[in-house]
Amino acid sequence: MYWTLDLIKHLEDAPFPATKNELVDYAIRTGAPNAVVENLQDIEEEDIIYESIEEVWPDYPSKGDFLFNEDEY
């Protein structure tokens, strides 16, 4: 299982909290690439409820990870 920003962006609007099966269903319904569906299917935990995208991919960058100063603009 591997995630990239390009793949994970397809789950940004997913209906969290959600289970693995709900996320797979969402990815299929929204036409996400097969790699997204495969990554979700590779998750071993069936009954865990994911509260956010960070629980699916712990390395998901937050707003603070970018060196962008909003006060300057």
Task: Write up what this structure looks like.
This protein has a two-stranded antiparallel ribbon with strand order 1-2. It has a domain of 51 residues. The protein is built from 4 helices and 2 strands. By secondary structure, it is mainly alpha-helical. The relative contact order is 0.22. 36% of the residues lie in helices and 5% in strands. Helix 2 runs antiparallel to helix 3. The longest helix is centred in the middle third of the chain and has 10 residues.
Annotation keywords:
mainly alpha; single chain; 73 residues; 2 strands
Quick structural gist:
By secondary structure, the protein is mostly helical. The chain contains 4 helices and 2 strands; from the N terminus they run αβααβα. It has a domain of 51 residues.
Largest sheet: 2 strands, antiparallel
Can you list the strand order of the major beta sheet? 1-2
- What is the approximate shape? globular
- What level of helicity do the residues show? 25-40%
Strand residue percentage: 5-15%
Any low-confidence stretches, pLDDT <50, length ≥5? none
Secondary-structure element string: HEHHEH
